[in-house]
Structure formats: C-alpha cells, structure tokens
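Proteins fold reproducibly. Next comes an illustrative record:
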Amino acid sequence: MPDVLPLPVKIEPASDESGLGFLLRVARANGLALMAMLEGLGLPRSTWLGESAIAALARATEVDHDWLMEAIVIADQRQGYRWLRWQGRLWACPLSLRGAHPQVCVHCLKEGRPCMLEWELTGVVVCLRHCSSLIDACGYCGRRLSWTRPAIDVCSCGHFLAADAPAARSDTMANWVASLALKGCDRQQGFNAAQSTLPRWLGPMSADATLAIGFAFGVREKPFERVTSAAARVPPSTDRMASILARALVRLQGARDLTRACRADLRLSVYEQGVRRLWTRNVCPADRDTAAALLQWLGALHHRPRVLADGQRADQGELFPLQDGHD
C-alpha cells in the first residue's frame, strides 16, 4: 500500500454515520467521485475495502482508525464460510447487511443528516423519525443506489433522490426497527421488555440472528413456496424486505410461546433451512440455543455439530423450551 498524505479538505464524521457514507461526503468535499478518490490514493476501485485500504483512508481523511474500521462492512473468510465484520463484531447471515447497495431516508438527507449507520442493516426498512420508508432505488431511472453515486442525496443518473409517500407504520414494525437498530449499532443489547409486541425470546439474540429469524418467518408468501439459494444469500430490495418483515411479524405472534404446539400452517410457512443455517453457523450461544429451540418447536431438530464464529464446535446439550413470559 503506497504512502498516503491527508486530503486537502477535511470534514468531521458524525458519530452515528456510515463509513462509506462518510467517505462519499469526503470525496464530494474534495471535488472527486468516490472511485476517483480511491484511485488517486492508490487504492482498489471497490467499495468492498480491506483492512489495509481502510487504514490508508483513515490517514487520508484524518479520522480515527478504529472508528472507520468498525463503520465499514468488511468480508472475512472463516471455516470455509464468508462472514462479515461490522461494528466490531462478526455477522454470519449474508442478508444482514446492505453492503454495496445502500438504502437511505430522503427526508433525513434533505435535512442535512448523513447516511446513518442503522441504514446498513437490511432489517431497518423505515425511518422512525419521519415515518417514511427507506429507499434503495432512484425514482427517476429505477436503478438501485450505489456508493459510486456523486453525492449522498444524488443518484448516479444525476437526479436528486425523491421521497416516497409516508409509510403505514405499525407499532410492531416500529418496535422491530427500533430494537434492531439499537442492537445492531451497539447502542443497547436486547429488546425493551416493556414492549410486548415481539416475542421476548428474541431479546438475547444478536441483531444478525434476529434478522435471520425475521427472514425465515416471512420469506414465504404461502406454505411450501420454494426459496432459491440466491434469495437466501443476496439482500433483497428494501421494498421486498419490508414485505418479508410484515409477514414475519404476523407469524411471530404465533411463536410467542414455544412450549405450545406449533400450528401446522405456521410450520409449513417458516423457511426451516434458514433457521437450521442459524443453528449451524452463528455468532453467539444465545443465537445457537434459540435456533435449536425453534427447530425443536417446528419438529425439525436433527442432531449435528454446530460451528460458532470462533471455530468452536458445540455439543447438543439439553434444550429448554422458550416462552414469552405472558399468560
């Protein structure tokens, strides 16, 4: 990696700003496109940046190295699998983070706010501040947004991003988005126990696993519907993710108490392979144990070793049924 000198124009990042959003603002302030800035610094023309490239960018932008490293999604190969690193932790579910295809709240951008960290989470589909849906495509040209656009509020086609109509936001969806953002951005762990619109057994799970469960419960529109491997690996559009989560939040009401028998219609609607993938590849024991309890509840538990993010293999052990704690 070549020696890197500071860029002429320095700007300060916001504490809750996306790393790539910050770099896009820096490039704009210096009269450059992001890819041109990377090329000028002798770095690869890619928004999938490695540790050495991020270290060079921290020197060029004169920001804290650790902050920038945690604010950008990094690919990480472990145990033959592709994991992601973001916010100082590993992410096992390939759907959890937006990566190369960002989403934004146009109202926030118009008010001068930066691209927020929480927008990196695929499961954050609405802005609670403005009660509006996030967008990931241009309303003029229809293309999906990318980090190569000329400014955070401008599409690659040159048009300013336009806002959709306010979203019809349910309390359950608002609770989901707020809780996922809190856990994913490390502002708080767990759901607020006083808010009872979500099953309490979701509380100890990581943001990564919470999104995986939401996807598994909502991806099928009807029982037995086939889920392609691409659909299980590539983050969907923001609109499609919102539809998936809307179905998931309804179905999760039937899974509040895992000590009760699972309804047949619910069992056939849940994407069992998604829960099984979480059981076999996860980032913490709470994710593993909850996935195992769900598989037991679905009548689909088979004994096999499980791999944690640190490479450890866990024995099956005794499974305790999870319940919501409500009458």
Summary: Residues 171-314 form one domain. Confidence is low (pLDDT under 50) at residues 302-308, 313-327. The radius of gyration is 20 Å.
